[in-house]
Structures are given as C-alpha cells and as structure tokens.
Amino acid sequence: MTYSPHTDADRARMLEAVGVGSVEDLFVDIPASVRASAWDIPPPLAEQEVRAELARLAGRNRIPEVSFLGAGVYRHLVPSVVGEVIGRPEFATAYTPYQPEVSQGTLQSIYEFQSLICELTGMEVASASHYDGATATAEAALMACRLTRRSRVAVSAGVNPDYRRVLETYCSGPGIEVVTVPIDLAEDGSGTTEPARAAAALGDDLACLVVAQPNFYGQLEPMSELAEVAHAAGAQLVAVVEPTSLALLGAPGEYGADLVAAEGQPLGIPASFGGPYVGLMAAKMASVRQMPGRLVGATRDAAGHKGYVLTLQAREQHIRREKAASNICTNQALMALAATAYLSAVGPAGLREVAELSTIQARHLVTVLADAGLAEPRFAGPYFAEVTVRLPDAARRHATLAERGIVAGYLPERDEPKLRDTLLLAATELTTDDDIDRLVSALEESR
Question: Which residues does 149 contact at the CB level (< 8 Å), separation at least 6?
C-alpha cells in the first residue's frame, strides 16, 4: 500500500473539520501528568540507511545449529504443501468472513479446521480465531466461569508459566480469583498434579481446574482422576493439551474433559521467533453458546447447495464489548488453515508417526545422557517427548552451549526455584542422533 505523509495543509483542514485548533487539543482528555511531552526518536534516515539498519538488526537473529528447546513451541517438519496452500491470495488476504456469500472459501477452511480439532480432541464442537495456546487457555477458564456462574479458577503449577500469567491477567479484570495447585516436586516425586492436593484446593465456588497434558515439565498427568476430582466439586476440567501427543495419548473427550485448549503451533506452523500462532479450543455441544471466537456451521441454501456461515453467535460477540463473551476480534484463519493443511497432509498415520518418532528420540536422548553420566530424569513416571533432567551447574552450561550454536533446552529454574540445576529437553522427529551426540560432547566439554 502506498503511503503519502500528510502536509501541514492537510492537517489544518482535518483539525478544522473536527473543530479543534491543534493536534494537542485532541488529547486534552488525557491527564497532563501521564501525557508525553516529547518524543525521543532518532532523526530521519535516507532509504539506503534504513535498509542498512534493518539488515543489521536482522543479522542479530541467530538460528541455532542444534536445538532441544520446547517449552510450548516445537520444531516439526512442515510439508511444503502447507506454505503452498496458505500462500494463495484468496486466503492470505482474506479478512473476517462476515459476508458468507463472498467468503465461502475462508468459511469452509475454518469449518474443516473445527472438524479436525474435534476429531483430534474427541470433543463435540470447536471454535476458531484464538491467538495462541495461552489466550485459548484463559478464554476456556472464563467460559467455565460463565457456565458454572462461579468466580474462582484453580490452575495446576504444571501448566506452562506463561499460560498461567496470561490467565491471571485475563481474570484480573472481572475479579476472578486464581489459585495454584502445586505439583509434586520432591526429589523422587512424580512432577504431576496429585488428585488429593487438587481436591483440597477445590471448593463449592470453583469454576474449573486447569491441567496440562503433558504438563510443562514433560510429565503425563492423571487426567481421569483429576476430572473426577473437578466434577465432584461441581467444577469443570480444562485440559491444556499438546496436539501432536493426541496421536498417542488418550483424547480429552475420553477422560472427561469439559473444555480443551491448546497451542496449534506444532501443527504445521514454524517456530518463527515466537509467532504468529493459533490457539485451539474445543468443548461439548451443550456449552456452545458460551464459546468465544468464530464458529462456522454448514448449511444449505434455497437451491439446496451446501454453504458455510458464521453461526450460533450474535455479531455482538465480536464488536460490542459489554455484551461479548470474549473480546477476540481477529480472524486468525490463516494460521488455522496452516494447521488444517498440515493435518490433511500427514493424516492420522503420519501424525502418529511424528508423535512416535518424537518419543523415541526423547528416550534415546535420556539414555545417552545417563550412560555418559551427564544427566538423568528429575521426576519419576512417564513422559511424552519432553523431559526434565538433572544437570549440575545448568545455567552456566546452558549459556556456554548457546555460544556454540546449541540451544540445550529450557531452564525451569526461571519459573520454579526448586528446579535449580535442571534442564527441560524436547525432542521431535527432526531431532537426529547426530544432534544428540553433539549435545553430549558439548556437555562433556563444559563440565
């Protein structure tokens, strides 16, 4: 889009039209104590200077040669068909599909996305348009509050710390209390949410229990037991899942989850230095009226032709803050389309293969580290494709390896002081034996 700056004459005409004498008069409602009085910005640059500066900034991005970093974002192979599909102009430039008669392609892609998420999670209905896993989790908790008419939320300490922070932010506005249920961090502990401790934190005013599967530290939670605990208190279970794991683990719909939230990044979306991603949300059909985000349904027109339309939600859901169940106003359909193309390309067997290869490499990694006397699992019990290991002087060695182009996982002590000298390592189908050997060699040299 061509950009033409306004001239002084342009600005004068606009100010006259709105009835003020200066640009500063437009901001008189903002108290002077918090109003900026000066702008500390650099002087203008010539185009070639801007290009040089942008190139310098881009050069600071370092692509690691070897990476075991996960903690919510994972390296997976993205089939080339995904980029081909989402790069089509009718999808790449599409906006909110309020007019179904001119948005059938976008609406159908969202409908297919919702159908695939329902199949993956074992739930009855899924919505689209969530920004990422963190916001989908927060929206699911708020939805549970509306469904139960309660104002307390319990969240396991095994949920991604970033998700918990977003949840607390979302709940701070409406005055919803968030309580944290600790996980077993004993030296020989499970690293999971104990049902008895969860039951002690619940009460008759609790709306939901939020638990991750697998949890942030890679451990597999006792989801069926936690669902029973939540339901016994009249609360709902919000399962925060890693979608690839569902090719091997039980679906949330099978173990009693009422609401499901997830980060869709593993489904055909590159890590991309942190985004854009897509949040997943699914629920039971009885709860559909309280679901935030876009919801597309299939119908037939007067001539009997199949068509797609936004359904079961009034327009207020998206534009009127005081009446909306959510203030999500983005379409986010392009990233949802990427997930749809990915799942369609790999299919059920391919997704299972991705999950199996990831778990195989995670266990091979643990075995090699243990045989070398470098590290061993911090927690007892099963894990999926990510594992927390004991590693002496972990922070120093982590930094040393990063200087050598090896991102050796995530440091849990950043969020949990009790996990000092541990490392959270993730493996995927892209993790090679050579990657593991290089990590082991670098760790031996960094002792």
Answer: none
| CB contact set of 205 (below 8 Å; sequence gap of 6+) | 150, 151, 152
Is residue 57 scored above 70 in pLDDT? Answer: yes
CB 297 within 8 A of CB 308: yes
Average pLDDT, the chain: 93
pLDDT 10s digits, 304-351: 999 999 888 755 555 665 666 665 666 688 999 999 999 999 999 999
pLDDT (tens digit per residue) in 79-91? 999 999 999 998 8
Angstrom CA distances, 262 to 219, 244, 437, stand at 16, 10, 32
C-beta separation of 241 from 211 below 8 A: no
Angle between the N-to-C axes of helices 394-403 and 433-445, in degrees from 0 to 180, rounded to the nearest 10: 120
Partnered with residue 177 across adjacent β-strands are 152
- Secondary-structure breakdown of the chain: helix, strand, coil percentages, each rounded to the nearest 5: 45, 15, 40
Distance in angstroms (rounded) separating the CA atoms of residues 159 and 175: 21
List CB contacts of 25: < 8 A, sequence separation 6 or more: 15
Q: What is the per-residue pLDDT for 3? A: 67
Write out the DSSP string of 26-67: GGTTS-GGGS------PPP--HHHHHHHHHHHHTT----SEE
| Residue 200 near residue 229 (C-beta atoms within 8 A) | no
Strand partners, 388: 424
pLDDT digit string (tens) for 281-308? 999 999 998 998 889 999 998 899 999 9
